[in-house]
């Protein structure tokens, strides 16, 4: 269908993996590993193999699904598996799965023997629109997200809507949050288009546009020195709420659900501390409210969430820095916010579903 | 005294850390960490502080000394310490110590929050002539050396002979092996100069020349696609013998002692499979024999050593690849060697001290 080129690699859309077939034939890797979780191994691997004409000359490395397993213990296991399989520097790792698989697989590949090639095939909506661009790899430490990682580019990325058919509704909703974010920070028209779309049947065109937005930002600022920070809108509070939920809730929030909460809170902060109008705040609040289920941030967790904010990777010199909306479709970064405003933004979120 | 510039950073020689003082004043890091082992913390840290006029605005992260501690468990400990200290992306890590400290400190820094700045101050002869150039970071897994790591450049490197005064003789001898290697692979005159030098009182000029040789090779091939592999002369068998010794010997070989053994073995392989003459082989054998203590590679360990060779990072497509001398001062790479020749080279080493 289309492709996006950024510095170093190409993102292929809806090609039924045909360019991958050619690539594997030409590249002469010594060994090929497919890294998947038990879900993608069961549901996506057959699709992958069929697209590649029953391609089978690879070994599967399987892991447990879920953010709680994106940790160093699993990395050690994968490194040792690669060693057991005598993987050398000419080995290739194909990461087939959601963001946990592409983040962790990318980290393992980028550090095994100081780096082997890897390819990402994101199979969830979240991974397609978010983890597919930008060369960020990472794992969590003590439930703090992506605290350890590298900037390492895959050889290529393949985005196929066929894989989305295997994704549960709640996971589609999770990815949808990043799409909303892309509209909010840079493209009002795209945001409006999403309001009339159905996240359960998202069109390949909307996915493509979302990736194109992220790709544009990342290409301008690959190492997150400046502009790229706008992609963190909703993520400062969102990540903290997500970490808090991961460690406390029986059924934790998905990433996108947490980001949706973060966007409402940081929308409020944008109205308070930047130029987002009250009408715009209400518009985004209403859209997120009808799309995402209610959640309550317990007031007894506020302190813990503030502690988690101190570990945010965007912080500099002990100061928590936010990316805030100047309007719908425009975002600024390195914004300071008072502790009191953070608390009030959490209270604002909690009040939204009461109305 | 002098400096060497390579792509991205400068190696400063005998400056009493004055450029570091200026750098720290200008760079405005949010926090500074000095990473050291308990030995360098006791013996090198006071020298470091005195050179910087009692500089004290840093936190020390201390680890246990020795290759056996260059592992992921210690990395996790350091990552968590950085988190506890609320280190952000504008933090700096100064690695003060031998190769274990610069390798592991570099790996931790290059992966913490996807990379913070670091500076290397190698305090052993080995680290000064070997680990100071090239941007290799790494840790061991299952006693297999540097199996996990990144290519990441420090902001700067400082080499000071003052620190060598704190280094035990056996450790000086360890570093001397890499200097011999630099002569053997690229500079016959330098090799001859080393033969008349005293490793216990090595001159700053000989250290400089060694670093300059390595810098030249690494600058031409930073990612070890080709030429840089010549730096692995002596290291293919050397690393395997070292890993074997680490896991079996009560008092394991130092890195340099293992490389000295590796250079005799691979010298023999160079005579057998490349153009090194018998006289040249005998010359290098004699030099190493008078310089390094006798060691016996047990024949019951030969199989294990061959297994370890299979994990060598230079291997491609299951083939063990050696860097071999064409003559003293000239080296080729990607050389195939039979399993039988590997065994015979180990036997040759064992026979050397019998003569």
Strand content of chain A: 15-25%
* Quaternary structure: homodimer
Q: Helix proportion of residues of chain A, in percent? A: 40-55%
Unreliable stretches of chain A: none
Class based on secondary structure composition and strand pairing of chain A? alpha/beta
How many domains of chain A? The number is 2
Amino- and carboxy-terminal Cα gap of chain A = 44 Å
Quick check: average pLDDT of chain A? Answer: 94
In the CATH hierarchy, the architecture of the largest domain in chain A is: Up-down Bundle
What does this structure look like?
The structure is a homodimer. The first copy, chain A, has two domains: about 160 residues, Rossmann fold (3-Layer(aba) Sandwich); about 180 residues, Up-down Bundle (Dehydroquinate synthase-like, alpha domain). In chain A, about 45% of the residues lie in helices and about 15% in strands. In chain A, strands 1-2-9-6-5-3-4 form a seven-stranded mixed beta sheet. A two-stranded antiparallel sheet of chain A has the order 7-8. The first copy, chain A, has a two-stranded antiparallel ribbon with strand order 10-11. In chain A, helix 6 runs parallel beside helix 7 and helix 11 packs across helix 14. Chain A is globular and about 55 Å long. Chains A and B meet through helix 4 and strand 8 of A and helix 4, helix 5 and strand 8 of B.
């Amino acid at each position: 269908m289309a492709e996006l080129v950024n510095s170093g690699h190409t993102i292929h859309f809806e090609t039924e993996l045909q360019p991958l077939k050619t690539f594997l034939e030409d590249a002469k890797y010594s060994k090929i590993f497919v890294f998947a979780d038990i879900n993608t191994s069961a549901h996506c691997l057959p699709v992958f193999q069929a697209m590649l004409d029953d391609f089978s000359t690879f070994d599967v490395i399987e892991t447990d699904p879920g953010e709680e397993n994106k940790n160093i213990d699993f990395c050690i296991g994968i490194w040792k598996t690669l060693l057991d399989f005598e993987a050398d520097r000419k080995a290739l790792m194909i990461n087939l799965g959601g963001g946990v698989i592409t983040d962790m697989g990318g980290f393992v590949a980028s550090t095994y023997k100081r780096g082997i090639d890897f390819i990402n095939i994101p199979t969830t909506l979240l991974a397609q629109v978010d983890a597919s661009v930008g060369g960020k790899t990472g794992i969590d430490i003590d439930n703090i997200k992506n605290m350890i990682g590298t900037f390492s580019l895959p050889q290529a990325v393949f985005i196929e809507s066929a894989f989305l058919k295997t994704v549960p509704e709640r996971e589609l909703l999770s990815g949808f949050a990043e799409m909303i974010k892309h509209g909010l920070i840079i493209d009002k028209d795209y945001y409006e288009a999403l309001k009339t779309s159905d996240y359960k049947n998202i069109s390949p065109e909307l996915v493509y546009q979302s990736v194109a937005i992220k790709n544009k930002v990342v290409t301008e600022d690959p190492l997150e020195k400046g502009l790229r920070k706008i992609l963190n809108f909703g993520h400062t509070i969102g990540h903290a709420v997500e970490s808090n939920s991961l460690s406390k809730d029986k059924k934790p929030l998905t990433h996108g659900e947490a980001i949706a909460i973060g966007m409402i809170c940081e929308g409020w902060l944008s109205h308070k501390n930047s130029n987002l109008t009250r009408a715009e705040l209400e518009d985004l609040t209403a859209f997120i409210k009808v799309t995402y289920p209610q959640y309550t941030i317990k007031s007894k967790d506020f302190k813990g969430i503030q502690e988690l904010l101190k570990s945010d990777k965007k912080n500099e010199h002990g100061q928590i820095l936010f990316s805030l909306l100047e309007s719908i479709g425009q975002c600024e970064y390195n914004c300071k916010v008072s502790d009191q405003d953070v608390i009030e933004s959490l209270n604002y979120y909690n009040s939204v579903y009461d109305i």
